[in-house]
């Protein structure tokens, strides 16, 4: 399939095509060349995208969106077509951006998502690509865009407004991070920048841990060492999630092989960082971080929780990782999305990150929106019932 259109931008022409990926090696060549001219996130780097492409479930049909200006590639993205059933009732034909529509596989969880665009014309490329994709939706039902970067979301909203598409925010979230330039300007160190109670909790936990032996923070130096830490992290991660009655990230059969490949290539390149924190001879936690253009992103972790809640392995591990990031001269330590108690305590900056779907305002979409509202209302009511105290009987 070869779908073409021409989009005019200030007198210049942006030529957009969408074709099945048939030659990953050729795509890699185009992608890595554009990556050097773009400001995309780690999740738009070939290290993530190439690994994702090589790991796709059988039957997935990835298509490459290619934008050219004057014959030169200025925009790239991968989209997968899939027919989904909403609530078991509504048949929906979708295009998904850097996702497959297979729920389990997509729990690899892309964030800072968008279109890889040449920094010299990125606004024009984003506008042209999302306008073009919106026009193609006349024959489809929905464009699914998860974990969007702010610039990409702004372009999507403009395209939806221009074309009269209904836009639905499926998940409204935010990502939080530590702006280390701000910490450096204050000049008192990271720990001093925290709130009084958080600072006291960290210092108390560190003191209790050091009673067992020196508190040490180690970054794996080789891929082999990093894989050992990754497998040890799995044990701690799964234990804590299973204790809460939840499955944990490693229950996804794609998770371990995907990240093992990412670690093997990423540690030597300096884009993957496995961190181990120990108190004496005992490991208290692991952090699995990505590093991209001065941004350190915490993707996953595993911690040795204990009955004594004064011991806070996650809090201590993140503080040590942030101080290491600060010492390396990097720009920020990013907790990324998904709520967690330590994020607002340790971060000093945040921005929205949303999961969006858009398409023609057909009856099926209106029904879908109403059903989602009913489902969200029921879930909220159940949460309030669980939190409400039970009436006291025979007091």
TrEMBL record:
InterPro entries: Acyl_CoA_acyltransferase, BioF2-like_GNAT_dom. SUPFAM superfamilies: Acyl-CoA N-acyltransferases (Nat). GO terms for molecular function: transferase activity. Signal peptide: none annotated. Residues 196-343 form the BioF2-like acetyltransferase domain. Pfam families: Acetyltransf_6. Keywords: Plasmid, Transferase. This is GNAT family N-acetyltransferase. It comes from Azospirillum brasilense.
